[in-house]
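#onboarding

Welcome to the new folks! Below is a worked example of what a typical request in this channel looks like: someone posts a single protein sequence, and someone else replies with the predicted structure as tokens. Don't worry about understanding the tokens yet, we'll cover that in week two.

Example request:
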Amino acid sequence: MQSQGGNAGRLTTHVLDTASGKPASNLRIELYRFDGERAEHLVSTRTNDDGRCDQPLLAGERMESGTYELRFHAGEYIGPAAERGANPFLDIIPIRFGIADEKAHYHVPLLLSPYGYSTYRGS
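Example response:
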């Protein structure tokens, strides 16, 4: 889905807690861009009550082709949410992916439970 005119490219995400059947609110997310093995931190944010970020993680001129990594801080969310103590099974979930088309919408959702996760390129 592209908007009219200009560079419509953007990167978005959302997180669903599949164990509770609800959006994962207040989950910390970081975005990094890679140049070889060097990671540059670009964004830190948290999900809202709908499990989404209030703004795109990248948009417009900041949307460049390259290799990126989203780091979902699931341990902070799962530990208190599930009352599982200080050592949840999942901690930081890194998802490394490529952006080839700077004008496209890249949506990287995370389906999360205390013992597993999945992701895909959404729309």
